[in-house]
Amino acid sequence: MKKLVLGLFTLLVLAACAGGNSASIAGTWKLVSYNQTPAAPGVDTSIEFKDAQVNGNVGCNGFSGEYKVKGDTIEFGQMMSTLMFCEGPVGEQESATLATMNESATFTLDGNTLTITSADGASVIVLKKK
């Protein structure tokens, strides 16, 4: 009887460890591209996912908000951002990035590359781990 209980306990522990999405987006990332357009050269970008909070800067405004990961989906809360005027490529990449991080998005994690796609598929950002 003890062997049976121990065996069942071991199976439950292994199932718990194996279940769910083991990929973690936690960490700090650099913008590589948005909507198949390379990130603006010479612009230091940073997006950090930590403790259900996302924050960063991908152009000229800082932003922050909440997020939750469920499987391969990221649910974003309301984003807050500073409101400096941004024009040209920097403004375009900032707008595209924030549009992708609106409400719900899917993601794939391949090594040190994180790709986030908006729910409607219209916006895609590619990030590299810093």
Description:
The chain is globular, with a radius of gyration of 18 Å. It has a single domain, classed as Lipocalin (Beta Barrel). It has 130 residues and is α+β, with helices and mostly antiparallel strands. An eight-stranded antiparallel beta barrel has the order 1-3-4-5-6-8-9-10. The protein contains two helices and ten strands, in the order αβββββββαβββ.
Number of helices: 2
For the residues shown, what is the average pLDDT? Answer: 86
Major beta sheet, strand line-up: 1-3-4-5-6-8-9-10
Instruction: Categorize the overall geometry.
Output: globular
Please state roughly what percent of the residues sit in beta strands, choosing from under 5%, 5-15%, 15-25%, 25-35%, 35-45% or over 45%.
35-45%
Termini separation comes to 51 Å
Structural class: alpha+beta
Q: Which value, in Å, is the CA radius of gyration?
A: 18 Å
CATH architectural grouping: Beta Barrel
Count of domains: 1
Elements, N to C (H/E): HEEEEEEEHEEE
Task: Give the CATH class.
Answer: Mainly Beta
- Total strands: the figure is 10
Short description:
With 130 residues, this protein is α+β, with helices and mostly antiparallel strands. It has helices at 2-18, 88-100, and strands at residues 27-34, 37-38, 46-50, 53-57, 62-70, 73-76, 80-81, 104-110, 113-118, 124-129.
